[in-house]
Amino acid sequence: MIESSAGEHPVKSAAGSVFPYPSTSLHRVEAVTRGLRRVAVGWIESRVRSPERREILFDLDTAWRNLFSASGKSAEFDLLSKCNANLMRMWAD
């Protein structure tokens, strides 16, 4: 169960699934009522600490992928690739 400002959100995934969520989210694990629960817990740390900068990089990547899907490799695609690489170099720890 993940809590957010909008309330609680139950999570029930298929066996073998991964459910990533921000470590700042309150969460809890409900009791197993049938079967067996086996879990592997891990953490992922972004090389870009600022959430605002990560959002910009995400939006840029989304535009980059959509442009490639629509038009293939182009001068605009290469420019977005260059911008993404330069921002990563500037913002990554």
What does this entry show, briefly?
With 93 residues, the chain is mainly alpha-helical. The chain is built from 2 helices and 3 strands. The protein has a domain of 41 residues.
Distance between termini?
32 Å
What share of the residues does DSSP label as strand, in percent? 5-15%
Radius of gyration of CA atoms, rounded to a whole number: 19 Å
State the oligomer.
single chain
Could you report the average pLDDT, rounded to the nearest whole number?
91
Shape: elongated
SS class: mainly alpha
Q: Strand count, sense and closure of the main sheet?
A: 3 strands, antiparallel
Poorly predicted segments: none
Beta strands, count: 3
Number of helices: 2
User: What is the H-and-E element order?
Assistant: EEEHH
Strand order in the sheet with the most strands = 2-1-3
Helical amount: 40-55%
